[in-house]
Amino acid sequence: LSNGCTTKTENQKGPKIPRSLARTQLPCCWFRNIAQPSYKMDKEVAVLQRKLEAELKNFKDTQREFSKLVQTQQQLDGQYFENKSILEELQMLKPTNTVYKLYGPVLVKQDLEESKQNVGKRIEYITKELKRCGENITQLEAKQDKYRANLQKLQMQYQSQMAIAKQ
To answer: What's the pTM value of the predicted model, to 2 decimals?
Structure first.
């Protein structure tokens, strides 16, 4: 051929030729143009599928982390309200009342003011932890929204590539 291309027939190596075209001599550049898009399409679909799987893994990881944080927040809420009620009960006591603190199996006598301060510090610590936990939850919600949007975009691209590949 004048363009420098050789021809391929049925017995030569290369892309599979339909039987109806096997008897005719076709330039190799014709096969290159035909074979490349489908190979490229398969490659693009595979790349999209890997991206989709990676994004889904990230999304599931953030969901797990989110549920752990929510569980931690619930535990902290319980501790907060328990300590609040303890502080209220300590506030009702008179300075002459005796307060005992449980250390393992032993009850130890403790000063009323010291008990109030300890419970107050615990409440303060729990409040800080609740705030930190709430901020982390907010950040994770934003991350989840980002991953969800990316997943939807990738899924649409993947579906359109699959539809094109089927044609």
So the answer is: 0.65
User: In which domain, by residue range, is 75 found?
Assistant: 46-166
Closest CA to 161 of 72, 59, 38: 38
Bridge partner list, 135: none
The neighbouring-strand residues paired with 123 are: none
Q: In 3D, which of 93, 139, 145, 96 has the Cα closest to residue 119?
A: 93
| Token representation of residue 18 | 């339909």
pLDDT tens, residue by residue, 75-124: 999 999 999 999 999 999 999 999 999 999 999 999 999 999 999 999 99
In a domain, 91, yes or no: yes
Q: Is 19 part of a structural domain of the chain?
A: no
Of residues 154, 138, 130, the one with CA closest to residue 62: 138
